[in-house]
Specification:
Largest sheet: 8 strands, mixed
Radius of gyration: 18 Å
Shape: globular
Distance between the termini: 33 Å
Keywords: Signal
GO molecular function: hydrolase activity
Helix content: 25-40%
CATH class: Alpha Beta
InterPro entries: Alkaline_phosphatase_core_sf, Phosphodiest/P_Trfase
Protein name: Type I phosphodiesterase / nucleotide pyrophosphatase
CATH architecture: 3-Layer(aba) Sandwich
Mean pLDDT: 94
Signal peptide: 1-19
Strand order of the largest sheet: 4-3-5-1-6-7-2-8
CATH topology: Alkaline Phosphatase, subunit A
Number of helices: 11
Number of strands: 8
Structural class: alpha/beta
Strand content: 15-25%
Length: 294
Amino acid sequence: MRKAGFIALVLLCGLTVQAQLKGVKHVILIGMDGLGAYAIQKADNPNMKQLMAEGSWTLKARSVLPSSSAVNWASMLMGAGSELHGFTEWGSKTPEVESRELDLYGLFPSIFTLLRQQKPKAEVGVIYSWGGIGYLFPKKAVNKDQGCPNDTATTEASINYIKEKKPDFLFIHFDQPDGVGHNIGHNIPEYYEQVHKNDVLLGQILQAIKDAGMWENSVIMLSADHGGINKGHGGKTMVEMQIPWLIRGKGIKKGHEVQESVVTYDTAATIAWIFGLKMPQVWTGRPVKDAFEK
């Protein structure tokens, strides 16, 4: 087939039409439950701060409403807000509102759906500490689906998977510091001590990426679902809604504070853009292009 004809066929069939970010083979998304943006500058977290120094970041990214867990993890992975994907509560297991569109797995289209359809040979995994994550992605679309009892176990499982399989895309979910926030409180010494512990685990994952020989061709992202006040969340204050959004790696600006508006559903769109995936019309997320070198 002539080259021009092939290109026309690709466009006609709706396959990948954007170029993959040159040199990137892996994206690792790390989500820390209840990590408010306010905590980043206050905590003893050298690994998080190193990601900021080596990459791009904003501490003004926003959750969708309500600022609680399932609705926001769904939005992060599904590229749209609750009014479209239908997950509306902190512990949603199925959409309370009818999803505007369903994929071949019977869920609202997610980054996992796009990867499996457009890059069918991709190695894709989800490793998580909170069982609620297991309802927010199509299990048949991933190679690795592992729920863990705590963040330490999640870290160990992630390290093993990274070294063994070198995944194209891996979503790692930590249940902390949300547990401390609920049981003891946010913005207090115990909360920041937990953020420090999370940072230590983050460092172990970063080292595993290096040990696996993936460091130079990976993009690493760190974000959260919400912040919190006292022992709760779900409210409409900036303390509850503002989340960190950090990205470093191949093709990412260094030491750059993103000035663009970022909402959590832009995470899925950014990952799709990195991989050169065609995004569904129903997604409202946009890739955060200000984070990338020209």
